[in-house]
Design goal:
The protein is α+β, with helices and mostly antiparallel strands. The protein is built from 8 helices and 21 strands. The strands form 6 sheets. Strands 1-2-3-4-6-5 form a 6-stranded antiparallel sheet, covered by helices on one side. A 5-stranded mixed sheet has the order 15-21-20-17-18, with no helix packed on it. The chain has a 3-stranded antiparallel sheet with strand order 7-9-10. It is elongated.
Length: 429
């Protein structure tokens, strides 16, 4: 079947004049609008020579007014995409809203599609986007749609864009004007699912944590909608101490325990462990002794090398991995494997009804969720055995990180936070 391009919301040919702007080329469609690069041909020096035109499709009067108000409220910040102009424009028989925006080099979605960020760059992302969110929050607004495609790189820094979902915050810290788009469900905080027409500034912080985790690891810290709502979250051990600290605090199920203000850096507030609800724990507030959970084990794994000798010399330290007395513990592969279709093995957990195997592949061919499979105890050959095993149904390459989530009859999930392994390169004489 021939590939067909999606229909454009507003179809303009290069060279089309939109007031003082000339369309150069089409960028994308989304959110009931078409986006174009354009050149300024008006009075010299009034506006930058290049910008981005976001041209809306047909909007009802109330939707149009709400969108205009949202863009007019966009705060003036070095970490927020600048709105140069906003006007109504007639084209043919239709009338459109045109938003003239600062041109960015690329979006975060574009960036992580090519390569994930390092932990250090991920933390810089959090600081810069956090500064943009702080500008919104100090102006009494929520952004309401923090996700990779709405974060742009321009002038050497990360900036927040797409102000259409922004809305003022009421006295209770909530907004009734911001409605999160269906495409943004994976970046919605758990509390917002009770009422999608309400947004909260603490929800912006939760979404930023999900974005940061995804930008460094290539995956979100949950693999199902249920896990997104109630946790516990699969927080990768490879985030680095600063970024991991922010992610763990920002993903708390209790919104009031999340960082609420940034000022160039994040304002970390040490929580009271008796009241804290961590993203890696239960939604029920308990202490470690009350929950019956054992102390966390830490294993460090260093996976290095391009040839066999380098691998043999490099393996010896371990990257952090946490465990629980009720979570499945990976047995193999654990450090290095030469199998492109490895046999995954883990300890069986009493009372488990199924397991969820999730594998990220890294290297030149990065694939988030290369294996994303629900496995019954029968399929894993551990309905009555002490160990489970499953042969990979796809070939892996480079290095990969894998997680096992244990599901119980009562609906609880326990997640092993991951083991990083590498495929031993084949050396031909």
């Amino acid at each position: 079947m021939a590939h067909t391009e999606p229909l454009r919301v507003v179809d303009l040919a290069p060279g089309t004049r939109v007031r003082d702007w000339t369309v150069a080329d089409h960028i994308a469609d989304g959110g009931s609008a078409s986006v174009y690069r354009a050149h300024y041909v008006g009075i010299a020096d009034k506006f930058p020579p290049k910008a981005v035109l976001r041209i809306s499709g047909a909007l009802g009067p109330s939707r149009a007014q709400a969108t205009i108000e949202a863009y007019n409220r966009a705060p003036n910040s070095a970490n927020v995409i600048t709105v140069h102009q906003l006007f109504e424009w007639s084209h043919g028989e239709a009338s459109h809203l045109v938003f003239v925006l600062e041109e960015a080099e690329y979006t975060l979605a574009d960036r992580i599609e090519q390569n994930f960020l390092s932990p250090e760059d991920g933390y810089e992302l959090v600081k810069e986007v956090g500064a943009g969110l702080d500008a919104y929050h100090r102006a009494g607004q929520v952004h309401g749609d923090v996700k990779p495609s709405n974060i742009m790189f321009a002038d050497g820094r990360w900036k927040l864009g797409d102000h259409a979902g922004a809305a003022p915050v009421q006295d209770d810290g909530k907004s009734t004007g911001a409605t999160v788009h269906e495409s943004s469900l994976s970046y919605r905080p758990p509390e917002s699912f009770d009422d999608p027409t309400k947004a909260h500034r603490h929800g912006d912080i939760w979404a930023l944590a999900v974005v940061a985790h995804e930008s460094v690891t290539g995956r979100q810290p949950f693999t199902s909608r249920r896990q997104q709502l109630v946790g516990p979250y699969n927080i990768s051990p490879g985030l680095g101490s600063d970024l991991e600290k922010f992610v763990r605090q920002a993903l708390r199920l209790d919104p009031s325990k999340r960082p609420a203000r940034q000022a160039g850096d994040l304002n970390f507030v040490e929580p009271d462990t008796q009241e804290e609800v961590l993203a890696t724990g239960s939604s029920k507030v308990t202490t470690a002794s009350e929950s019956g959970l054992g102390t966390n084990k830490k294993i460090q794994i260093v996976l290095v090398g391009f040839v066999v000798l380098a691998l043999l010399a490099g393996v010896g330290s371990w990257l952090a991995r946490r465990g629980s007395v009720r979570s499945a513990s990976p047995i193999a592969p654990i450090v290095v494997t030469s199998e492109t279709r490895p046999l995954f093995r883990w300890t069986a957990v009493p009372g488990a009804v199924s397991y969820h195997l999730f594998v990220n592949q890294y290297g030149d061919n990065q694939v988030n969720g290369r294996i994303d499979r629900l496995v019954s105890t029968v399929d894993a050959s551990c309905a009555e055995a002490a160990e489970c095993e499953l042969l990979a149904d796809v070939e892996l390459e480079g290095s990969f990180e894998w997680w096992i989530t244990t599901a119980f009859e009562e609906g609880a999930d326990v997640v092993n936070e991951g083991s990083i392994v590498a495929i031993e390169p084949v050396v031909t004489p």
